[in-house]
Description:
The structure holds two protein chains of two kinds. Chain A is α+β, with helices and mostly antiparallel strands.
Amino acid sequence: MLQPRDTHDLVEIISAAAAEGRRLELAGGGTRSDFGAPRGSQIVCMQQIAGVVDYDPAELVLTVRAGTPLADIESLVAAEGQMLAFEPWGTFGTTIGGVVAAGIAGSRRVTAGSARDHLLGCTAISGRGQSFVAGAKVVKNVTGYDLPKLMAGSWGRLGAMTEITLKVLPKPRQTVTMAARGLALDAAYAAMACALGSNADVSAAAALPTGDVMLRVAGFAPSVQARCAALPGLLTGHCRLEPMAEAEAEPLWRNAMTGAQVRGSVRWDVHIAPRHASRLLDALAPLIVDWAVDWGGGRIWIGTDALCDGVRTAAAQLDGEARLAKAPAEMRRRIAALHPRAPGVARLEQRVRRAFDPADVFVTGRFGEDADADQFFA
Amino acid sequence: MSIAMPKPDATTLAKRDYIVAALRRIVPGEGVIADPDGLRPWESDGLTAYRQTPMVVVLPETVEQVSEILRWCERENVKIVPRGSGTSLSGGALPLEDAVLLGMGKFKQILEIDYEDRVAVVQPGVTNLAITQAVEARGFYYAPDPSSQIACSIGGNVAENSGGVHCLKYGLTTNNVLGVELVLMTGEVVRLGGKHLDPGGLDLLGVIVGSEGLLAVVTEVTVRILPKPETARALLVGFPDAESAGACVAQVIAEGVIPAGMEMMDRPAIHAAEAFVKVGYPLDVGALLIVEVDGPAAECDHLIDEIARIANVNGATTSRVSQSEAERMAFWAGRKAAFPAVGRISPDYYCMDGTIPRRRLPEVLRRMEQLSQKYGLDVANVFHAGDGNLHPLILYDANVPGELDRAEEFGNDILRLCVEVGGVLTGEHGVGIEKRDLMPEMFAEADLMQQQRVKCAFDPGLLLNPGKVFPTLHRCAELGRMHVHHGALPHPDLPRF
């Protein structure tokens, strides 16, 4: 494992790999290394490139080095009454660079956006071993191409982000979960759609196989109280809503957000138009062991023991996508982690990727599409 | 008029008739404009100081026609300037003498509205406001609201990543677009994103938004629509100076309030606006804040009280809360009329668009005042105070020889100042031609080269909207020096996974 101490080390490592035709895998805390195909890559550990560069709460802007632990950042901003609004999540050791590069977002994604929406700028070392700055350190900027968008969710395939500037937002002063019980998924979807489409400003909506439907109401106390009072009336036609105690709600939200408790040896992360959620689960009923729905129906964690890509095929038929979030190594070798792109998009992605990494330094075999895409150039 | 456009290509100019004939085959009927009178209305966009008659205008009606036009132009090495409604304030849609102007105005249909999933699928020529109008009966709206929203098209919004007064809370275009269909310069039609969130793979949609028409031509847009807030209230607060107003803004945000809009005007802007619309702005203040909150009534009441308290702590000298929708609109009327109001007190004005870290505001205003004296031109300031996006309006008279040049130089100095204090050249208007030559102030050569390599991945012939955004367009072969063609890698013996 290579452990660069600073940007200078990193430039040397990447330049040398590019010149010698070697491959490198960028890693934060390595907490998501089971995502993607098994591979024997040379790891570049970013954890030493860490620390807060600048944080001015009143500007809503935070600049940190990429290897900084997510947990440290969360406590830093929480101390100022702020948060990362895209609700990134991980486990012990997860870094901020890791969650941004993986495009991780939590339940609030449905209303607050994802890592992409909160990454204002970054400094990165491309596969050429060249340092470049993308975006800026202010909350509103349209100068030049929005390269930070490309870096978020790129899984380290374009370059190594060393410094990251994020938009931070005030943390809600109060959060209440309003819940309904015993709803089938189609009824749950209708209730969530009604709530998210109402002016009660519901910030997250999840549903579980137990029939629990949860709506998150967050903000200033008088507002939260007024909205919690109004919501049952707004949803009269759908369900009976009651507040759910935090002790009960918290683990349920956690499961809807991470899928971590979804049973089955294989877990898929399906992103789909919310209205298709129940159709998808119906279609896949024979395969499914367990599931959890977040984003008002837009994200479905599907647990199964089937070692095939039936979930992906079904999601694609409904214009959705399925990521292979957890699977035995044998299956991850056969089935790509990321949903395959249409040929035209795959070609374009390949060209854009090579605009950053012409020598394929960051192509490790982790994502099947990297190997596949070349066939389009034949 | 200091910005030079690329020298027209003589070969292209020489085959104009051939190009016009080819376009007429692709788009029959009225869709091709080539006569001098017909071309004149197309000679500029919202940056009217710059004019150029296009070689020819083509107005396709179908995706197939767009695709064929691009494919034909790529084969023939003919440049294309895409255009929405032509409201760009940075010259993004300025025609070129040797380029086809591709107007997308005929793509005017709203294709689908899904209220349950809160998305709308529209063609790029639909105006920003038309989306809101189409969904407002059911209590929804489209959030980004650039001041040109009555005219500007959603396709143009995608190209420019347009903002508006509400973007601190609701985001720019990029945060409200879920998918696009686009045509590449090769004519290939590609779909990115859709009705689902966070598609995997590289976020190509993210780089298309705000690419100023240099990467592809958008033919369909899927946007998020939001439930309209239950209510909105506004507070009009006067301060002795911009320092105290700025301190108030900082404290509002530090205390956890993200207003729907937070606008500041300086003394010249207040006086110009009040003289024009007479809405009762206080004239004895140095800075005026309009703070709008939206949401449930209980929230608005609570926040208005909080903001009023913070304003008092920071030395507000006047404070009024809107008691009715009419009064709230009146507060905004002056701000929204600020540009034409300034237009009344000066023959011409030049609107800038830098963003700064808000804490540097007092210093920036002080130095802007010094620049104003240096150039002998007045400046009125309106800005989106919440996100630090300044709109200084430089007053000049184009009929006075040299004044436009001086106004441009003044503007350039303001933008240099924005970058110097840690800000950016443009918060929402785009680079276009206007700020093109200032890009090196903000980006190092390596940064710009990386952006251009992305351009090359989409448009290796550099045929889409040349002369915009980048001060120098390097040839793609030159940028890709390290590029190794598949099958000819430096170490072909190494395993490729």
